[in-house]
Design brief:
- By secondary structure, the chain is an alpha/beta fold.
- Helix content is about 15%, strand content about 25%.
- The chain has helices spanning about 45-50, 70-80, 90-95; strands at about 15-20, 20-25, 40-45, 60, 65, 85.
- The longest helix is centred in the last third of the chain and has 8 residues, at about 70-80.
- The radius of gyration is 13 Å and the shape is globular.
- The termini are far apart.
């Protein structure tokens, strides 16, 4: 997937919360959102929010998501879809170019 030059990597443009819900910055993709999640419910963020790592939260499970309190307006939209949102101040880490997803390793979750 081709991203705009100032978007560090895919997690800075798109964050999966669960199999039918994502946080996304459409402007970050040069060729549009990838096909498979294109029809999912989405919470759109601005390009500026994406460059500040708004899509780089951490889904602990399909029911729990962690993000920075600066993105509470995004968290409120996630919560309105039945997901519990936990907030941890990651301002300093975000200022260094990484956030929750960058600070963890992906897990294989078995249903």
């Amino acid at each position: 997937m081709r991203l705009q030059p100032d978007i560090l990597h895919l997690d800075c443009a798109l964050g999966f919360i669960r199999n039918d819900l994502m946080v996304v910055c459409e402007e970050a993709f040069k060729d549009g959102i990838p096909e498979r999640p294109r029809t999912w419910d989405r919470i759109n963020v601005t390009y500026k929010e994406a460059t500040n790592l708004a899509t780089n939260g951490l889904p602990l499970s399909p029911e729990v998501y962690v993000t920075d309190p600066v993105f509470r307006h995004i968290g409120d939209q996630i919560a309105s879809r039945g997901v519990t949102v936990e907030y941890v101040d990651f301002h300093i880490t975000r200022s260094l170019g990484g956030s929750f997803r960058c600070s963890t390793q992906p897990l294989l979750r078995k249903s």
